[in-house]
Write a structure and sequence with these properties.
Blueprint: H1 6-20, H2 25-71, H3 75-81, H4 86-100, H5 104-130, H6 133-165, H7 179-182
């Protein structure tokens, strides 16, 4: 910060001892450290206050933008998102290309399909939300039973495959003279 080297520090210390005196030096250093602590505290409080003001200003800007959106003023939001108008120009170009190629009907059909599927999903979620929790439990139990059956079938088929792969054990291998039988 101040770039004070060893020699400069010794010179400053010598001057302090000569000017203030050895008896007054500890008291002066205590008051100097108290002063620096107070300055740091004031600086920290100031920066925290400025940060709080900045956060409050950002929150108030967001609240104002939300209020404009609720009121239907979407031009200011569009201006904030695309200040140069590059995106809106590219969207207009794409719209013109679609209309000139005769694809407008297909786009409208896709739009209608998307709206229909969205309405169906909303209706299905409303129906599932309206059904009591008791009706949902048996369906869960049925699914769990089906999953258990499938798991047991898989285990049984794996066991059958392993049994088919293993060669049948012959009595000659179990004779007492073999090394396997002695261990």
């Amino acid at each position: 910060m101040l770039d004070i080297g060893g020699w400069e520090f010794l010179i400053v210390a010598f001057v302090l001892v000569m000017v203030v005196g050895p008896k007054e030096l500890p008291a002066m250093l205590r008051s100097f450290t108290r002063l620096t602590r107070q300055i740091r505290t004031i600086a920290r409080e100031f920066s925290e206050g400025m940060n709080k003001i900045a956060v409050d200003a950002e929150v108030s800007e967001i609240k104002a933008a939300m209020a404009k959106a609720r009121a239907g003023d979407l031009d200011s939001i569009a201006q904030a998102i695309d200040p140069d108008g590059d995106i809106s120009a590219s969207v207009k170009d794409a719209r013109d290309v679609i209309q000139s190629d005769g694809m407008a009907d297909e786009v409208q059909m896709i739009k209608g399909m998307a709206q229909d599927s969205g309405q169906e999903l909303a209706a299905a979620s409303e129906v599932s939300a309206k059904t009591p929790a008791q009706k949902k439990k048996p369906a869960t139990k049925t699914v769990n039973k089906a999953a258990k059956k499938a798991a047991t079938k898989r285990v049984a088929t794996k066991a059958a495959k392993k049994a088919a792969k293993k060669p049948a054990k012959t009595p000659a291998k179990k004779s007492s003279g073999s090394k396997a039988g002695q261990s």
